[in-house]
Design a protein that fits this description.
Structural class: alpha/beta
Radius of gyration: 18 Å
CATH superfamily: NAD(P)-binding Rossmann-like Domain
Distance between the termini: 31 Å
Number of domains: 1
CATH architecture: 3-Layer(aba) Sandwich
Order of helices and strands: EHEHEHEEHEHEHHHEHE
Number of strands: 9
Strand order of the largest sheet: 3-2-1-4-6-7-8
Strand content: 15-25%
Length: 266
């Protein structure tokens, strides 16, 4: 049955994984609400979707805003009606050693990576349950399932999404709403350009990738689409580690050290 005519909110859609997911969903007939903090970039994504014959609109949302849930619900309903699908993609990313993490840094990571998706889910899922259908996909990280140096607050907040997901399954499963998490490994995006943005940078990682390559945004977009399909109603409470099998090699300690501490928000 696919996702045709379903209303899909994709957060962090102004670039990278969110952009590709928004465009991929629109190509498959969804009416997409693409959200982000950078209006100019978000509007460009929406225009690209429309140029391809898809239906989309942009809404400016900041996950650190305590009102982000109610704002998201209002924007989606104003554009297309109640949400059928939520792709909780937006987040903040840090490579920071434990000793360098300040309380403010940690609070920022929690607000954006965990509280923001929680508030959006809290605002939209009850309506899905009332209508008897919904798909929620959280975008975590393989760092939440495998030890990756210098990612303590990032890994902790992404792992928190799994706990959130699992708590919602028994509450809403009988109402036709499913909850799943995708944990991507290395994927080439603007966010990871300083790590795997060129062939030379990617080369040290290839021996640890059973598929012989690092990921690309379409890998995640297609997985999110599969989990959002109308016929995916029995796929629930799953964590899909989308890393080409890298986690099975158990050789993370052999990877090159990450770059200097940095933080980027979508």
């Amino acid at each position: 049955m696919g996702i045709e005519n379903r209303v899909a909110l994709v957060t962090g859609a102004s670039s990278g994984l969110g952009e590709e997911t928004a465009r991929h969903f629109a190509r498959h007939g969804a009416r997409v609400v693409a959200s982000g903090r950078e209006r100019e970039k978000g509007e460009a994504v929406v225009q690209a979707i429309r140029d391809e014959g898809g239906e989309a609109t942009f809404v400016e949302l900041d996950l650190s805003d305590p009102e982000v849930g109610t704002k998201a619900r209002a924007a989606v309903e104003e554009a297309y009606g109640p949400a059928d699908i939520v792709i909780n993609n937006a987040g903040t990313f840090f490579f920071t050693p434990l000793a360098a993490v300040s309380p403010d840094d940690f609070d920022t990571a929690v607000r954006i990576n965990l509280r923001g998706p929680f508030l959006i889910t809290q605002a939209l899922v009850p309506g899905m349950a009332e209508r008897g259908h919904g798909r929620v996909v959280f975008i975590g990280s393989s760092a939440a399932s495998a030890g990756v140096a210098m990612t303590p607050m990032y890994s902790a907040t992404k792992a928190g999404l799994k706990g959130l997901m699992l708590s919602l399954v028994p509450e809403f499963g009988a109402a036709g709403v499913t909850f799943n998490t995708i944990e991507p490994g290395l994927i080439v995006t603007p966010l990871t350009s300083n790590l795997v943005g060129t062939d030379d940078l990617r080369q040290p990682f290839i021996p640890h990738q059973p598929t012989g390559r690092v990921g690309v945004p379409r890998d995640l977009a297609h997985t999110a689409l599969m989990l959002s399909d109308d016929d995916a109603g029995h796929i629930n409470a799953q964590v899909i580690v989308l890393d080409g099998g890298n986690i099975a090699t158990a050789k993370h300690s052999a990877l090159p050290p990450p770059p200097e501490s940095s933080g980027t928000r979508l």
